[in-house]
Design a protein that fits this description.
single chain, 447 residues, alpha+beta, Beta-Lactamase, Helix Hairpins, Heat Shock Protein 90, five-stranded antiparallel sheet, five-stranded mixed sheet, 13 helices, 12 strands, 19% strand, elongated, binds adenosine-5'-diphosphate
């Protein structure tokens, strides 16, 4: 009996121990498995989050439809690019594939078809691709939407530019052709000296016009390609404005225009390229002469306002209508094309002026009233302002980013030398930077 009880007890204790061991083993294993599942789910969620973030941050719209044509996903951008995102691919096609371009493309076995779509004044390219999506046996569809408004605008501008250039070149070319034909047909012997002289003058005018136009185009193309050579130096504005005005006196005189120039403040000086500055002044004053009637009045002011220099050309000529004033600096824009051509204008003058002013970190403003006259003001940063900007750029980045501020760097070096400061710009102490700013304020521009 005792043995029997001992056997039973041993059996109970052993099996209990085994059960306990097994339970703890399985519990531990489950825990490990749970952890693995948890890690995997976290990984999947993380990956999904990552792709959602990537999708959301894209400038592209992305929409995906499964093989049975049901919307799988779309990112935020896609919602802003097209009017609506249908739940079924077939509705998507009904709405956006009005010309059947997508359907016929896929019928012809194309893997990708593109269509253009305009929404809220912007142009989009919808590129629809047939793609096998994960786990799906058949192909679904992915639609990538790209904003192409800028490309379309640039393309349009390029086309207009070519059309304008051809048109502008054709006018003087026709003149040259007509008058040379007239000379050839009549023969020099049969024409009077007066008439021959007239024809040759016309030929000369035509070639001059073509030359001006080509020079203007070349200058613009150099500006566009950052290939314009500028020699930026400190320039006193008053003498240069005076010399430009004097050069145009005879033109103004022909129309009995009263011409006066005023120096409003002492020695306005800026970092500038001399020939670019001359081009800006000559162009503005020349326009005033062209677009002002006989016995009109033109005034040119030169001055300084706080730390900027300016020159202003005002006339009491024909004026520019308010509604076109925003267009006036565009290439080939003219209020009255025939009038402009009669004056030998190319319609590129103000576009060049604007580009050159931008190159000097300046600004051009226009006030004008039709029938009363126009008032153009060019403002450029004065020497001290440019030196301050240059010092700021040097201490922040170690170098100057612009030709104008680069020109001020030499003067800053001199100033630092005077103050006994080593020109290691990025490692200057605050008190050294303060001393330099102060020195700029009290310094006289050095020539
Ligand atoms: P253009 O060679 O035709 O003079 P611009 O680019 O210099 O070309 O000027 C563009 C247009 O701006 C001119 O055709 C003219 O219509 C207008 N414009 C420019 N300056 C004046 C002005 N001072 N008064 C009136 N209109 C002006």
């Amino acid at each position: 009996m005792g043995i029997f009880i001992a056997v039973v007890l041993t059996f109970i204790i052993t099996s209990g121990g085994c059960a306990l061991f097994a339970r703890s083993y399985f519990l531990r294993r489950k825990k490990v498995e749970d952890r693995a599942v948890h890690d995997m789910l976290e990984h999947v969620a993380h990956k999904q989050n990552e792709s959602q973030t990537v999708l959301a941050s894209l400038n592209l719209g992305v929409i995906a439809y499964s093989s049975d044509g049901i919307l799988l996903l779309n990112n935020q951008a896609s919602g802003q690019m097209i009017e609506e995102i249908p739940h079924y691919f077939v509705d998507f096609l009904n709405k956006y594939d009005v010309d059947q371009k997508i359907r016929s493309g896929f019928l012809l076995d194309k893997r990708q078809v593109e269509i253009n779509y305009i929404y809220h004044d912007r142009s989009y390219r919808l590129s629809v691709q047939k793609r096998k999506l994960a786990r799906d046996k058949n192909a679904g569809h992915i639609i990538v939407i790209q904003d192409i408004t800028r490309q379309i605008r640039e393309e349009q501008q390029r086309k207009e530019f070519v059309a304008n250039v051809s048109h502008e070149l054709k006018t003087p070319l026709t003149t040259i052709k007509t008058y040379s034909e007239s000379l050839l047909d009549w023969g020099i012997d049969e024409k009077s000296r007066e008439s021959i002289k007239k024809d040759i003058n016309k030929l000369y005018d035509g070639s001059l016009r073509m030359e001006t136009l080509i020079d203007d185009l070349l200058l613009l193309s150099r500006i566009d390609g950052n290939a314009i050579y500028t020699r930026i130096e400190k320039i006193e504005l008053l003498p240069i404005v005076r010399s430009c005005v004097e050069r145009l006196y005879p033109e103004a005189d022909k129309k009995h225009i009263e011409f006066s120039s005023y120096a409003v403040s002492d020695k306005p000086i800026a970092y500038a390229d001399r020939s670019a500055l001359e081009r800006i002044i000559l162009n503005l004053v020349n326009n005033s002469i062209k677009y002002t009637q006989e016995y009109g009045e033109i005034k040119v002011y030169v001055g300084m306002l706080v730390d900027e220099v300016y020159f202003r050309v005002t006339d009491n000529g024909i004026g520019i209508p308010l509604e076109v004033q925003d267009n006036i600096f565009k290439r080939f824009y003219r209020v009255d094309a025939t009038g402009s051509r009669a004056h030998g204008g190319t319609g590129l003058g103000l576009a060049i002026v604007k580009e050159l002013v931008d190159l000097h970190l300046g600004q051009i403003d226009l006030k004008s009233e039709i029938g009363k006259g126009s008032d153009f003001t060019v403002t450029l940063p004065g020497v001290k302002k440019t030196m301050r900007t240059a010092l700021y750029e040097l201490t922040e980045n170690g170098s100057c980013s612009h030709n104008v501020t680069k020109a001020a760097e030499a003067d800053l070096n001199l100033l630092a030398e005077k103050l006994g400061i080593m020109a290691k710009w990025k490692s200057l102490k605050k008190r050294e930077v303060d001393a330099l700013f102060k020195a700029i304020d009290v310094s006289e521009p050095i020539f």
